[in-house]
Write the structure tokens for this entry.
Amino acid sequence: MNISSEIRNPLWWLIVILFIGVTLCFVFVGWIWGIVSIVIAILVLGVYPILADKLENRKLLKNPGVAEYIERIASGSPAHPRMERSLGENTYRTKKNLNSKQVYHLEVNYNITIEEYVKLGKFQWVNENWHNMTFKSDNYPSERKGTESIKIQLLPFKGISYKDALDHLNREKYRPAILCELLAFGQQYPEIQMSHIIVAPGTQKQRGIIKGIFNGHGQPVVDSTVYIPCLSSGGLGRNLDLQGISHNANGFEWMFAAVLV
């Protein structure tokens, strides 16, 4: 632990001050005021992160580059250079342009379970919210077996849904990548998803009945949205997620993982 950075942390000083205050109340005022001071200290520590976050946002907005970026996005103008905030850090990264003609060579072992591929991918965050859509082989069985060398191209799209791109895919030249191929790509080319959203519409899944949620008639709510796996990045780093096939990445450029046939 870096002691000097801890001492400079306002939260560290706040805890020290509250501890001293509580101790003095117990010693010099009495146990009743001591308990009251503990309650006040808990409330202060609960409110502090909210206030600190608001102050941090104000500080960020005073940065001319950040303010200009937000203004351009809000007005619908293209952000140039296109940048995105890395959540949890006060840093921004410029997205790199990818050559859509570049061919990525992959070794894919279709016998490896989805769970093993997720571990090999070393993702910092994996979507595990939905019981029947978590990244497990039982939820995503594959008809392909054995080991195969494949070639993938990342086709760029912007402003259209994943479904529209899939409908217009040249099937004579490409087939949409499936989940295990996307995971193999994430494992072998981990840096690409740090600057681009990559989807594999060859694997599609419906959530179906949502457990524990019912409509006004007491019937279970059914989510009929079709979801596809995607690689992206965020505050924690590299993410493995699911997106609705009608989504368009909020207008940002995204990459279609297409296998050359």
Remarks:
- The chain has a mean pLDDT of 78.
- The two ends are 53 Å apart (CA to CA).
- Residues 3-94 form one domain.
